[in-house]
Specification:
Blueprint (H helix, E strand, L loop, with lengths): L1 H17 L7 H11 L5 H13 L5 H18 L2 H10 L1 H6 L4 H11 L11 H4 L3 H10 L7 H14 L6 H10 L5
Length: about 180
């Protein structure tokens, strides 16, 4: 029900803003979603994470796109059961992954006459390494070095949602490019 509410909210925001102006952004959708999100819901937690990432001086669209790129790398590199555990432990991440607002990065970019910053086709297919994530960050208008700023914010958020070792350590290694210790 909450996912349907988020999708409906996003669709309503898109309908209301695209017809009147090309000034629509994922930031506008995130603000609208957070305004109607139930406190403690995955939508509210997604908005909280986007706000934390925005403190890195990135736009909400960049925050969602960068998070989606990192999550898609995790989806491709973690065993399926670990990735499923991550999404079930932190439902807000599903909202920001390729199936949630992350997929809207490409859709909104297309409506605004821009290419999909996460690459053509399925974003999951493109994120096989940190180099691929760095390319996605670059297409989003961020330096690839921003990965090292995003990762600690995401890891802290994930840890605060109750995800512990060894999954948190595996994500740390994956997103830092360092072998697990």
């Amino acid at each position: 029900m909450i996912k349907q509410t988020c999708a409906l909210t996003f669709a309503l925001a898109l309908t209301l803003t695209v017809g009147g102006a090309n000034a629509f952004s994922l930031g506008d959708a995130a603000k609208l979603t957070s305004a109607v999100a139930v406190p403690g819901s995955s939508a509210a937690q997604s908005a909280e994470l986007v706000n934390k990432l925005s403190a890195l001086n990135v736009s909400p669209e960049q925050a969602v796109g960068g998070t989606s790129a990192l999550l898609n790398l995790a989806k491709n590199q973690l065993p399926g059961t670990d990735y499923s555990q991550l999404l079930s432990s932190v439902p807000a991440l599903a909202d920001l992954s390729s199936g949630g607002l992350g997929s809207q990065v490409g859709a909104v970019s297309g409506l605004l006459g821009k290419s999909n910053p996460l690459g053509g086709g399925s974003a999951q297919d493109n994120m096989q390494s940190l180099g691929d994530v760095g390319n996605a960050f670059s297409r989003l208008g961020m330096d690839a070095g921003m990965i090292s700023q995003f990762a600690p914010v995401l890891l802290e958020f994930i840890g605060n949602q109750g995800v512990g070792q060894p999954l948190l350590g595996t994500l740390t290694s994956l997103w830092s490019g360092q072998p697990a210790s």
